[in-house]
Amino acid sequence: xxxxxxxxxxxxxxxxxxxxxxxxxxxxxxxxxxxxxxxxxxxxxxxxxxxxxxxxxxxxxxxxxxxxxxxxxxxxxxxxxxxxxxxxxxxxxxxxxxxxxxxxxxxxxxxxxxxxxxxxxxxxxxxxxxxxxxxxxxxxxxxxxxxxxxxxxxxxxxxxxxxxxxxxxxxxxxxxxxxxxxxxxxxxxxxxxxxxxxxxxxxxxxxxxxxxxxxxxxxxxxxxxxxxxxxxxxxxxxxxxxxxxxxxxxxxxxxxxxxxxxxxxxxxxxxxxxxxxxxxxxxxxxxxxxxxxxxxxxxxxxxxxxxxxxxxxxxxxxxxxxxxxxxxxxxx
Length: 332
Ligand code: DGY
Prior knowledge:
Mean pLDDT: 97
Strand content: 5-15%
Bound molecules: (2R)-2,3-dihydroxypropanoic acid
CATH topology of the largest domain: Rossmann fold
Number of strands: 12
Helix content: 25-40%
Strand order of the largest sheet: 8-7-6-9-10-11-12
Largest sheet: 7 strands, parallel
Low-confidence stretches: none
CATH architecture of the largest domain: 3-Layer(aba) Sandwich
Number of domains: 2
């Protein structure tokens, strides 16, 4: 049996196994076992495939917790191909000396672009226009049909001034917008004005969420949050569905407490087609496509592969989530 490290990759990576692809890089360093389906492995299948592995390259649908790590005692690095890592129990990894890496930076622009796609589509009612045209409901031009909301010159509120929040704010300059942002603290050089969340909600025409999903942010966008927004404002979420109390959002849209919403993330994912969310008015949805460009996904896969290689060598790359895990001592 080979003494090369073994890596389980929980999904097919962009670029296939072509020379210089992320997977080819991984093949140079390890014996690689890829989950070939486009659907996630079941928890049992994940456990089974992780058992003999030294490293896991996961995506956001895989739950990595203490029980999995205990059943897979050789694993010493988990490289998550996502910037968010709410699917990973990081303290459980750290306790066991398992390094966790994520993929920050490389998806910032793609996700910011997607935020703008949703914001503009919701503001200018593109899905309604598209459906009307295709459904034969396009009558003669008239001055009051499908009126949307102005974007240029309006006020954008960013909740969570991290990398993606900043990139969204930078794009607002081109629209001559006033940018407000709320977060734990003011951020140096952020292209906007730091305000308390309540002020942001009271003033913004567009409220865009960019906080990670943590116990503190879980369902932070609840009925009170939407009640504090302006009735003519639009809500955009490209982070995680879990930050939204979805029934409260549905009610806010139904009752006209807010004017619209654009969502790239929701609960659950995939969302069943009969979910009540899809009956809410003035809602634009996308199926978690924030980072979905070939360039971005390839860069994410490469960064995840580099995380695996660094973790196997017991090095903490700059995208290590818990570099302190390396001081805990190697498992096996
Ligand atoms: C992430 O990276 O966290 C996204 O949700 C998937 O690109």
